[in-house]
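Protein Entry — a single chain follows
Fields — amino acid sequence, C-alpha cells
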Amino acid sequence: MGGAIYRLGGIALQTLDLSLSWYHWLALAFSIVFMGFAEGYRGFQKAFSPRVAARIHYLSRNVTPVRLLLAPAFCMGYFHIQRRRQIVTVCLTLGIIALVQLVHLLAQPWRGIVDAGVVVGLAWGMVSLVIFTLQAFFGADFNHSPETP
C-alpha cells in the first residue's frame, strides 16, 4: 500500500501544478471525501482491516507450510475462508483491477483528481490495518473473526 500511495501521490500532486477550474476543485474535494469514506472508512476500517488483522493473528497460531508460503494471499482471504467471502474477495479484486486500468486512461487533471481520493483511502486503510493488527496481538478486547471455515 505504501508503494501505491507514493506513486499515486506524485500523480495527484502534479494535478495541483495545473491551472484548475472551479469544477476541477469541486471534483477533487468530492473525490477526497468520497474515497475517504467509501474506501478508507467503509472498505478498510469497517471490513478489510479487521478481517486481515484477525487472519494475521490466526495465522500466527495456526501456521502450515502452505499458509506460510502464501501468507499475504491467506491473510487477504483468497483461500481457507468462507466460500461467500472468497467469492466477494476475488470479484472485488477483479473490479479494482478493471477500475485501475480505466483510471490509467484518464488525462490530467482527472487522473490526478481520482488518484488524490485513492491516496486518502489507501492511507486511511494502511493506518487502520496497523491499528487493528496491533489490537489483534496486544488488545484484550479484539473480537473480529478470521472467517475461517
Q: What stands out?
A: Helices lie at 2-16, 22-61, 65-69, 71-76, 83-104, 110-138. The chain has six helices and no strands.
